[in-house]
Design brief:
2 domains; SIR2/SIRT2 'Small Domain'; alpha/beta; 17% strand; Rossmann fold
């Protein structure tokens, strides 16, 4: 009888998508460092209250290029991990949909903060593609309203000031408790409750590996910390996971 392969949980943050042209938020060159007021654009109170905030938010979405972004070597490495037959789940703080675009089955991706690939009306709750809304912005609508009821459109993301979906948190907690290897990739590990997942994994005897360009609050507890660029480091880590080296080490 073959030995059961360990479950690998991968928490991904903004750093995994920077090589796809999507800027991070908290790094030295991140959006919050360059323009602290930009946080209003993704905070639910100011977003709903101010037409000007929404106009700036739509402009930011259009200029960020997330809709046209393509998966990079880091995303593709995780697809290779899944295709190699390693039991794995991705818990992502990102809202760009690049894990699924790279080829990961949607059922293996837990989107902790929702998705920016769709919009939803605050009023009637109608859902539509973000790309279509951005086309309206490009055509001259600086704050496109819901085509069905005229209500405010917002991305289907969890904005600052909102709680995460409880069922999503339950799934993430179960994965962190059940994994044998926990990779934290491109995350500052400062945003809660996602920042608690490494602790949950460690408390359940998982091996913690952190891949991030900057120090994180959990580096001290990690079994391994990698400072190499993610697009270079993650393919190498995946090879070690496929061979079983990380689970044994």
């Amino acid at each position: 009888m073959s030995e059961k392969r360990p479950l690998v949980a991968v928490l991904t943050g903004a750093g995994i998508s920077t090589d796809s042209g999507i800027p991070d938020y908290r790094g030295p060159q991140g959006l919050w460092q360059r323009d602290p007021s930009a946080q209003d654009l993704v905070t639910i109170g100011p977003y709903l209250a101010s037409t000007e905030v929404r106009r700036r938010a739509w402009l930011m979405r259009r200029e960020a290029g997330a809709v046209g972004a393509k998966p990079n070597a880091g995303h593709r490495a995780l697809v290779e991990l899944e295709r190699a037959g390693v039991p794995m789940r991705v818990l992502t703080q990102n809202v760009d949909g690049l894990h699924q675009a790279a080829g990961l089955p949607a059922r293996k991706v837990i989107e902790l903060h929702g998705t920016a690939t769709e919009v939803q009306c605050v009023g009637c709750r109608a859902v539509g593609p973000m790309a279509a809304a951005l086309e309206r912005v490009a055509a001259g609508e600086d704050d496109p309203a819901c085509a069905d009821c005229g209500g405010v459109l917002r991305p289907r993301t969890v904005m600052f000031g909102e709680a995460l979906d409880e069922m999503v948190l339950v799934k993430a907690d179960a994965i962190a408790k059940g994994c044998q290897v926990f990779l934290a990739v491109g995350s500052s590990l400062q945003v809660h409750p996602a920042a608690l997942l490494p602790r949950i994994a460690l408390e359940n005897d998982a091996r913690l590996i952190i891949v991030n360009g900057e120090p994180t609050p959990w580096d001290w507890a990690a079994h391994e910390v990698v400072r190499e660029p993610i697009s270079e480091a993650l393919p190498k880590l995946v090879q070690r996971l496929v061979s079983g080296d990380l689970a044994r080490g």
